[in-house]
Amino acid sequence: MKSIKNLKGIKGKKVLVRADFNVPLKGNRVLDTTRITAALPTIAYLRKAGAKVILISHIGRDPKESLKPVYSLLKKHFPLQFVSDITGEKAQKAIAEMKNGEVILLENLRSDEREKENNKSFAKELASLADIYVNEAFPVSHREDTSIVGVPKLLPSYAGIQFEREVQALSKILQPKHPFLFIQGGAKAETKIPLLKRYLKEADQVFIGGELANDFFQAKGIAIGKSVVDEHIPPLKAFLKNPKLILPQSIVVSRGGKKQTISVDDVRESESIFDIGLPSIHALAVLIKKAKLIVWNGPMGWYEGGYVKGTEEVIKLLANAKGETIIGGGDTAVLIEKKKLADKFTFVSTAGGAALEFMAKGTLPGIKALK
């Protein structure tokens, strides 16, 4: 990939920056600014160089959703104009009138249905707006959307500052230091299987927590009561034979209206597993202390339901770890940001699905498009 830092002589050039401003909203209020903040260094770099910066992004799943709330937040950092258009007359006129160092934010890319189709005509329309393309949307670079893989074929294309940081940091996992500990929690076991296949080969230990652990308990023949499992996954028995795989031996249930830590073999028919227990956390602490690289993705318990102990204890352990610590984005990264502990880790990814796919495959469609 060519880095944005290699761009020379861009004063007066129109630069199309594909950002990821797909942030959670409550009404018109942005609830999490992590991805917006991550794009600021690239925007500042281009402004300082005298480029005309055109920001594009999608937001939400509804094509009618607007980027206006993001505009309201961005204008606190630098002056910019919001245009309720993408490639039409309004956008073309606003871009034609731009001065060096100015910034424009265009409307939600997905308000045009061609964005999700990797449509050639839409790619040409987007490319016609600028002289240069920059991908600063690592979290959506696992998708073959027009603005991710179509436009780079038509313009000189570069990786943004955060995009490059993501690739460099997550690439450490592809050639890891040892001992290497991989911690996988969360749900959606189906999406985690490619990761587990890879890291049960490459890591020294793989610790499973969260809802994902329920699937392994069930495959092992352990009674899990009413615990949630993923019905859409292949058989797991082959994984269970791997000595690197470590499952929690103590878990947390609700018993008599109270949180109770019990052995994994003691779950009653009417109960559900909600978290990992303290003895399991102590066992994990020993592995963390020895590891030179720890990669973590996914909460250890049902965080939204108040079962936070397991996840928060793992955050504390990793924040104080001597080895390198890489967080694979998604819900885990959000929790760390809320705790204001991001600077305690080697790297916290802004991505969710893209980070998982990169860790499993070593590349993404958006990375290939930049090469």
Structural commentary:
By secondary structure, the chain is of the alpha/beta class. The chain folds into 2 domains: 4-165, Phosphoglycerate kinase, N-terminal domain (Rossmann fold, 3-Layer(aba) Sandwich); 172-360, 3-Layer(aba) Sandwich (Rossmann fold), CATH 3.40.50.1260. It is 35% helix and 18% strand. It contains 14 helices and 17 strands. The chain has helices spanning 34-48, 68-74, 89-96, 120-127, 146-150, 161-171, 189-202, 210-219, 237-240, 278-290, 309-319, 330-338, 353-361, 365-370; strands at 14-19, 25-26, 29-30, 52-56, 81-83, 103-106, 132-136, 157-159, 180-184, 205-208, 245-246, 250-255, 258-263, 275-276, 293-297, 324-327, 347-348. Helix 3 (89-96) links the parallel strand 5 and strand 6. The protein starts with 13 loop residues before the first strand and ends with a helix. The mean pLDDT is 94.
Helix run count: 14
So, the CATH homologous superfamily of the largest domain? Answer: Phosphoglycerate kinase, N-terminal domain
Global geometry: elongated
The overall average pLDDT, rounded, is: 94
Strand order of the largest sheet: 5-6-4-1-7-8
Radius of gyration, CA atoms, in whole angstroms? 22 Å
Count of discrete structural domains: 2
Helix and strand content put the structural class at alpha/beta
- The counted number of beta strands is 17
CATH topology of the largest domain: Rossmann fold
Main beta sheet: 6 strands, parallel
CATH architecture of the largest domain: 3-Layer(aba) Sandwich
Bin the strand percentage.
15-25%
Low-pLDDT runs of 5+ residues are: none
State the end-to-end CA separation: 5 Å
Q: Any idea of the CATH class of the largest domain?
A: Alpha Beta
Helix content: 25-40%
